[in-house]
Amino acid sequence: IFIFMCLYSIFSHYATGINFDKYDDILVDVSGSNPPKAIMTFDEAGLCESLRRNVTKSGYVKPTPVQKHGIPIISAGRDLMACAQTGSGKTAAFLLPILQRLMVDGVAASKFSEVQEPEAIIVAPTRELINQIYLEARKFAYGTCVRPVVVYGGINTGYTIREVLKGCNVLCGTPGRLLDIIGRGKVGLSKLRYLVLDEADRMLDMGFEPDMRKLVGSPGMPSKEDRQTLMFSATYPEDIQRMAADFLKVDYIFLAVGVVGGACSDVEQTIIQVDQYSKRDQLLDVLKSTGNERTMVFVETKRSADFIATFLCQEKISTTSIHGDREQREREKALSDFRLGQCPVLVATSVAARGLDIEQVQHVVNFDLPSSIDEYVHRIGRTGRCGNIGRAVSFFNPESDTPLARSLVKVLSGAQQEVPKWLEEIAFSAHGTTGFNPRGKVFASTDTRKGGSFKTDEPPQASAPSPAVAADDEEWE
Ligand code: AMP
């Protein structure tokens, strides 16, 4: 029974929603020289039997667009910069071809050694996200000789090192802890073949860039010519793309998975005009209408996360919170209370916005809007995942949020959402953050190497500024 339950939890998955087939209509743009042909089915991916079985057990019937294109690109040994929405299936898009290649090449079965030499390193900005990637890796590697391990801050270093030394083919980690373990000589890099950066825009912004440069400059790290580097992110501001090119081979492939008809339009987005003092009452109104549906409430600072969570508890709404100041144990407890539905409301800072795949989040409330539109897209991506319909309500305070108005209008209209008249007016009169184009654009980012040859019929636009790194919520490991 125990084994059955373990297996059940490894392969537990949620039903793909009614809009899952809509993924087939998503526009995809592949650029770079000689891109490999896309696959249409998992059978065409040529996965070995155990991987194929694990894909089936995970409930995946057909590949999502990022998988259809990403899997053959990675299998062909090409470097990749992939721009795909949250919830688009990007984790499997990189894990499956990596695991497949490791199996085909007969990777040495993991065994105890004082120094481990992983074949793949996967880096992500937050503990929760890297843990989620690790769980996916463990699921797909089940029954094979490939051993994934996860390392992140907040768990005992001795324990982490012991886990690594037991054997490690695929090392998943947050930057700080990863560099720490490499620095202690517990992990050698000479066998490394794959370096994956998830949420690459965040990994290369001013918060993490030095760590990333340190990682690729670590002793033994194969040069970019001798390893395969893969980057995934929902957005790629132009400056980040240029920086990313330092980490990639010249002939990397840029894969953009469209926004129109994608995960974004599976989220019903509402913007409510508020002033600072009416926000709490508005929040109560929204939460009263959501009943027991799982709702994530985003706030700007750790302090207001605690404050709002306490306020909601006083109002008899079962609420928990997650932010960078809470201990790892508390963060995991909060996530599990939310996942299990014990606390249907989770108050979070941006740290929690990135990549978390939580089953059935029906609502996202932006109590405080973020300062960058990229962050907004990430946040609302917590809902409407995997083809399910979600709702996002955002409180727009003209005093603080006006700089976001133009890009907000653009995102709303790009995802065929109703744009409130008052917001359009604010957007027209605001000093813009991005070029105002009510029709929106098809891809969240386009390949900067194209020098302005866009597939859509709109002129190239300056992309939104890279997400500001809120010192308050920085995830230093
Ligand atoms: P990701 O974008 O990697 O975070 O994936 C979002 C969710 O979609 C995860 O729960 C995956 O397990 C699920 N998923 C990914 N690929 C597929 C697929 N081909 N079919 C069904 N579900 C999928």
UniProtKB/TrEMBL annotation:
Catalytic activity annotation: ATP + H2O = ADP + phosphate + H(+)
Signal peptide segment: 1-17
Domain Helicase C-terminal: 279-427
Family of this protein: Belongs to the DEAD box helicase family. DDX4/VASA subfamily.
UniProt motif (Q motif) ranges: 40-68
PROSITE patterns assigned to the protein according to its UniProt record, in alphabetical order: DEAD_ATP_HELICASE (PS00039), HELICASE_ATP_BIND_1 (PS51192), HELICASE_CTER (PS51194), Q_MOTIF (PS51195)
GO BP: any one term: meiotic cell cycle
Origin: domain of life: Eukaryota
Molecular functions per Gene Ontology: ATP binding; hydrolase activity; nucleic acid binding; RNA helicase activity
Protein name per its UniProtKB record: RNA helicase
Domain annotation Helicase ATP-binding: ranges: 71-254
Keyword Plastid found: no
Residues covered by region (Disordered): 439-477
Enzyme type, top EC level: hydrolase
EC number(s) stated in the UniProt entry for this protein: 3.6.4.13
Record keywords: ATP-binding, Helicase, Hydrolase, Meiosis, Nucleotide-binding, Signal
Record Pfam families: DEAD (PF00270), Helicase_C (PF00271)
Biased composition (Basic and acidic residues): 447-458
Low complexity bias: start-end ranges: 459-470
Annotated ranges, domain DEAD-box RNA helicase Q: 40-68
Organism the protein comes from: Cyprinus carpio carpio
